[in-house]
Amino acid sequence: MKFLCFLLLFIFLSPCIHAKKPDPLYLNSDVIDMDDEKNKKKEKKPKDERSLNEKTRSLLHLPPPHTTYYHNIDKSKTPLTMEDYYELSAEKLRKDIEIPSPEFNQDSEFNFPEPQFRVISYNTPPGQRNIDLTKIASEHSVASPAVLSPDKKKMVYTRSYFYPQKIQTSSAAYFIPVKGTFQDAYDILYNTNVIEGSPEAIFTVGMDWLEKYKFTTLFPLDFSKDSNKIAFKEKIGSNYEQTWVTNIVVYDFKTKTIKRLTAVREAVIYYCRQKKNIELKDYMWDIYPVGWDKNNPDRIIVYAYAYTKDKPLFLGTWSIDAEENRSELISPDSTEANIDLNGFGLLEVKFQH
After folding, report:
1. Alpha carbons 14 and 31: distance in angstroms, whole number
2. φ, ψ of residue 8 in degrees (nearest 5)
3. How far, in Å, CA of 199 to CA of 93, rounded?
4. CB 255 within 8 A of CB 249
5. Helix (H, G, I), strand (E, B) or coil at 210
6. At 218, phi and psi to the nearest 5?
7. What is the pTM assigned to this prediction?
8. Degrees (nearest 5) of the Cα angle 63, 55, 48?
9. Percentage of the chain with pLDDT > 70?
10. Taking burial as the number of CB atoms within 10 A of a residue's CB, which of 73, 207, 252, 315 is the most buried?
11. pLDDT at 80
């Protein structure tokens, strides 16, 4: 009987013995409203207003993109309407654009020296001027100085052209009629522009065939005394073997024809064969036109030389008339000749620093 009473008492007191102690945090906390928690879950998260580029950069931890700032913008000229935009974007002619003139406090504040030129006899020194081809490969075109006729009515210049595909050079001669009321040769040479020249060349050389590495150039020698003719130096050669042959070419303004004076070369060959027992075909030799003969205005004077190992061999001073009727030996051993200087040219006076 005692055992039964003890068992019943144990069963009755067992829940109290094994009960957990109350949580002090729970006793001091507010009562949780489960409905309120459900409402909070239903609330939408704020929308991310960043661009896709900004989101990607943030995700990959990249620096922000570079920002360009424009300063000193005249907002008064910013188009506000489509009419303003059309007005600002309309095409304007150069003549309608007003360019303000520069203003200086004193006239002597800036002193820019202008190039100085003086008129000279074009063929000075006689026969020494030649075209410079050092820049023709890069510029593809090189022009000679212009020469003014003695009557001051004609100007002539030449231009050499380079063809890269064939590495070939050819030339053309151009005529410029003098227009306007110029007072002297300086005004004509300084103010006449090559644009006023004829669009077509009066004649060309080296343009009738294509031959790799070959060059044919023209360079004005001088006008005749009556201004009706002009002589040119025509040089034919190779870019690697230099000049092969030099010819005299005369253009006649009255007949508008050209004549290549090759007879003087034949006369030099015949003279050397008969008088000096030299066959020039076995040697390198050439002629050098120097100008019109002052004593015989219709004739052109040339020097002839043969190339040797030591020094050039002089082959005489010769002359030939512009119609190629007769060649003459002026002197077999002297270069003294009376050269007539007919045309006019400009010489730039260099500044002394």
Report:
1. 30
2. -65, -40
3. 27
4. no
5. coil
6. -120, 145
7. 0.65
8. 135
9. 67
10. 315
11. 60
| Spatial distance between the Cα atoms of 302 and 320, rounded to a whole number of angstroms | 8
Tell me the CA distances in angstroms from 256 to 40, 84, 181, one per residue in order: 106, 60, 26
| Residue 325: C-alpha distances to residues 184, 204, 265 (Å) | 36, 24, 13
Asked if 306 contacts 283 with a C-beta cutoff of 8 angstroms, the reply is: yes
Contact 196, 154 (CB under 8 A): no
User: What are the sequence ranges of the domains in the chain?
Assistant: 118-349
DSSP per residue, 97-153 = ---PPP--S-TTS--PPPPEEEEEESS-STTT-----TTHHHHSEEEPPPEE-TTSS
DSSP 11: H
Residues 179-220 have pLDDT tens digits of: 777 778 888 887 776 555 566 789 999 888 777 888 899 999
Whose CA is closest to 160, among 134, 141, 145? 141
CA–CA distance, 270 with 77 (Å, rounded to integer): 84
Q: How confident is the model at residue 7 (pLDDT cuts 50, 70, 90)?
A: low
**Amino acid residing at 61:** H
What distances in angstroms separate CA 102 from CA 3, 93, 134, 182, one per listed residue? Answer: 128, 21, 40, 31
Residue type, 257: T
Q: What angle do CA 38, 44, 49 make, to 5 degrees?
A: 160
Q: How far apart are CA 67 and CA 50, in angstroms?
A: 16
What backbone torsions phi and psi does residue 55 show, to the nearest 5 degrees? Answer: -65, -45
pLDDT digits (tens, 9 = 90+) for 213-247: 888 999 999 999 999 999 999 999 887 567 889 99
In contact, 307 and 245? CB cutoff 8 Å: no
Beta carbons of 296 and 340 less than 8 angstroms apart: no
Q: Is the pLDDT of residue 67 over 60?
A: no
Strand-pairing partners, residue 291, are 301
What ranges in the chain are assigned the alpha helix state H? 2-17, 24-28, 34-42, 52-59, 82-89, 136-139, 185-191, 263-275
Lowest mean pLDDT among 48-57, 152-161, 174-183: 48-57
Query: Are 320 and 300 in contact, with CB atoms under 8 Å apart?
Result: yes
